Amino acid sequence: MADPSTYRPKPGEIPLDPGVYRFRDKDGRVIYVGKAKSLRSRLSSYFQDISALHPRTRTMVTTGASVEWTVVRNEVEALQLEYSWIKEFDPRFNVKYRDDKSYPYLAVTMGELFPRAQVMRGRKRPGTRYFGPYAHAWAIRETLDQLLRVFPIRTCSSGVFKRAGQVGRPCLLGYIEKCSAPCVGRVSEENHRAIAEDFCDFMAGHTDRFVKRLEREMLEASSELDFETAARRRDDLGALTKALERSAVVLGDATDADVFGIADDELEAAVQVFHVRGGRVRGQRGWVVDKQEEGDLGLAEVVERLLLQVYGGESPEGVPREVLVPALPPDPDSVAEWLGGLRSARVDLRVPQRGDKRTLMQTVERNAAQALARHKVARAGDLTARSQALQDLQDALGLSQAPLRIECFDVSHVQGTNVVASMVVFEDGLARKGEYRRFIVRGTPQPDGSVRVDDTAAMDEVLTRRFRRYLEEQGDSGGLEIDDHDQDDRLPHGPIDETTGKPRRFAYPPQLIVVDGGKPQVNAAAAALRNLGIDDVAVVGLAKRLEEVWLPDDDFPVILPRTSEGLYLLQRVRDEAHRFAITFHRQRRSKAMVRSALDDIPGLGQVRAKALLAHFGSVKKLRAADVSEITAVKGIGPALAQTIQAALREDGADVPAVNLTTGEVLE
């Protein structure tokens, strides 16, 4: 395994501020995203004595090759940024926040007759508008409680709403004016929907018009000496102001902007840019510019060259409406006109002076200062040390590269029946369960008409099907790759399905195939690949008796030391494939076994079949009964009784009967 000390930052480099950090592996892929109230305290905990770490954390830090961080203002910002990056990078070590269930949203059910505001988790529903994510559900409820003063939208459940309409009396929120009470007709359907739409506009960031409207109404009421209304508007305005207290990563006016921050000295300048779309930070980039190569550049010249470099090859969609910089270039009008020509619309190039945009600029500048400090103290050296287990396998098996993707196949059956196979995938030593596959083995037809379903034939069939599909996917994709222009966040991608936008199922070839078994299974797997013309994928077998590793066409196995991390990884892969195959086989076998001779009788359903078995106790006794005895069972008429008797006496074979409720074999 890699030594975390090879990429450990010096404690003085790590800021004490809250922020979000990312661990990357040797290929630059993000393997973990986390947030911290104090980056220094949290990151230092990863580089303590490795034996004291949780096994999953230990695997993560030994898989990583570098760590980076982004400074934010508070924990709410950190959570929102962590969420965005987990969704973007899908890090393999992140579990808790992998799906929407961990993040509550404020949802407005605009698809209902009377829209309702509520906390929602899980899968998005059509006709519902979502706002968030939030750190906690209580944060949504506090925000909603503040806004109900101004936007008295319905928040009750369907049952409460219906009951209030039946009794003609609203709930408590209706009495304290935090609900417009459409349940009892205080407002019409149209007026309540207008309130819901205003609420959604406010949550979407279009806040200024509501604040100005309340200020105007407050002043008008005050000038007319209606101090009660003025006080109410004042309190409403305070509620909106409190709800508008938000983090710098969410802007209130649905801003589309690129925000640049620069930290420089006499020789170099560190640049950070936050890409804000729809009021949210959608991406971040950073790099270091060598000022010495271009002579003595001032900040204005650095900004001008930076804009030319960033937007020189951009498409019109890549240039936002606003470009916020720490200093204007020497000729700002010309640069703004050039940007407008690229976008085919006006581009506002300016230095933010106050408000949320200035606050976000300060956050970006702090990240730039941290990046420059890290760059200055960064040690030269190789930060791409491989995992020890993968290195052991590369050395022991004589591979040209470390097996970053391992696929393991296992066949499961009982005396040749219900034959199935499993394929499990490990990447960088970790299971990728989303890429597991199951196969129903059909068998290999023989010249005499029989079907061969032994272990070697099944292995040949499964490998052939898997890699034939891989060759088809490669042919269909035409070598299509995702074009990632963000040079600071390069991620490896495989062929993409043009219709779904998702990676193709079998598009990624492994560097190593592991089969559960010895020499016969390995040779069968190697022959399947050879018949398909695939010669760049290594194949090994792991025999369970002595845990020896077999290579194709070798007379003697490779014996790995019992303490080898490579052997431990192979065992985990093999055991996972065996577990996955056994689980699938049991499912198939259970479906095949829970049957009886009654299942094929026309007109006899499951309920009446259970009644017959409960009455007679077994199919054998039912077969011996006459029509009158069968009709004594509730629900069985004379015609059906004759059909049952005829079917059972024609089928005189001893078919085992099974209790359909418990699955117990009755005979």
TrEMBL record:
<dbReference type="GO" id="GO:0009380">
    <property type="term" value="C:excinuclease repair complex"/>
</dbReference>
<dbReference type="InterPro" id="IPR004791">
    <property type="entry name" value="UvrC"/>
</dbReference>
<dbReference type="Pfam" id="PF14520">
    <property type="entry name" value="HHH_5"/>
</dbReference>
<dbReference type="Pfam" id="PF01541">
    <property type="entry name" value="GIY-YIG"/>
</dbReference>
<dbReference type="InterPro" id="IPR038476">
    <property type="entry name" value="UvrC_RNase_H_dom_sf"/>
</dbReference>
<dbReference type="InterPro" id="IPR000305">
    <property type="entry name" value="GIY-YIG_endonuc"/>
</dbReference>
<dbReference type="GO" id="GO:0003677">
    <property type="term" value="F:DNA binding"/>
</dbReference>
<keyword id="KW-0234">DNA repair</keyword>
<dbReference type="InterPro" id="IPR035901">
    <property type="entry name" value="GIY-YIG_endonuc_sf"/>
</dbReference>
<keyword id="KW-0267">Excision nuclease</keyword>
<dbReference type="InterPro" id="IPR001162">
    <property type="entry name" value="UvrC_RNase_H_dom"/>
</dbReference>
<comment type="similarity">
    <text>Belongs to the UvrC family.</text>
</comment>
<dbReference type="InterPro" id="IPR050066">
    <property type="entry name" value="UvrABC_protein_C"/>
</dbReference>
<dbReference type="GO" id="GO:0006289">
    <property type="term" value="P:nucleotide-excision repair"/>
</dbReference>
<keyword id="KW-0228">DNA excision</keyword>
<comment type="subunit">
    <text>Interacts with UvrB in an incision complex.</text>
</comment>
<dbReference type="Pfam" id="PF08459">
    <property type="entry name" value="UvrC_RNaseH_dom"/>
</dbReference>
<dbReference type="InterPro" id="IPR010994">
    <property type="entry name" value="RuvA_2-like"/>
</dbReference>
<feature type="domain" description="UVR">
    <location>
        <begin position="208"/>
        <end position="243"/>
    </location>
</feature>
<protein>
    <recommendedName>
        <fullName>UvrABC system protein C</fullName>
    </recommendedName>
</protein>
<dbReference type="InterPro" id="IPR003583">
    <property type="entry name" value="Hlx-hairpin-Hlx_DNA-bd_motif"/>
</dbReference>
<comment type="function">
    <text>The UvrABC repair system catalyzes the recognition and processing of DNA lesions. UvrC both incises the 5' and 3' sides of the lesion. The N-terminal half is responsible for the 3' incision and the C-terminal half is responsible for the 5' incision.</text>
</comment>
<keyword id="KW-0227">DNA damage</keyword>
<dbReference type="GO" id="GO:0009381">
    <property type="term" value="F:excinuclease ABC activity"/>
</dbReference>
<dbReference type="InterPro" id="IPR001943">
    <property type="entry name" value="UVR_dom"/>
</dbReference>
<feature type="compositionally biased region" description="Basic and acidic residues">
    <location>
        <begin position="487"/>
        <end position="501"/>
    </location>
</feature>
<dbReference type="GO" id="GO:0009432">
    <property type="term" value="P:SOS response"/>
</dbReference>
<feature type="region of interest" description="Disordered">
    <location>
        <begin position="476"/>
        <end position="504"/>
    </location>
</feature>
<feature type="domain" description="GIY-YIG">
    <location>
        <begin position="16"/>
        <end position="95"/>
    </location>
</feature>
<keyword id="KW-0742">SOS response</keyword>
<dbReference type="Pfam" id="PF02151">
    <property type="entry name" value="UVR"/>
</dbReference>
<dbReference type="InterPro" id="IPR036876">
    <property type="entry name" value="UVR_dom_sf"/>
</dbReference>
<feature type="domain" description="UvrC family homology region profile">
    <location>
        <begin position="259"/>
        <end position="525"/>
    </location>
</feature>
<dbReference type="Pfam" id="PF22920">
    <property type="entry name" value="UvrC_RNaseH"/>
</dbReference>
<keyword id="KW-0963">Cytoplasm</keyword>
<dbReference type="InterPro" id="IPR047296">
    <property type="entry name" value="GIY-YIG_UvrC_Cho"/>
</dbReference>
<dbReference type="GO" id="GO:0005737">
    <property type="term" value="C:cytoplasm"/>
</dbReference>
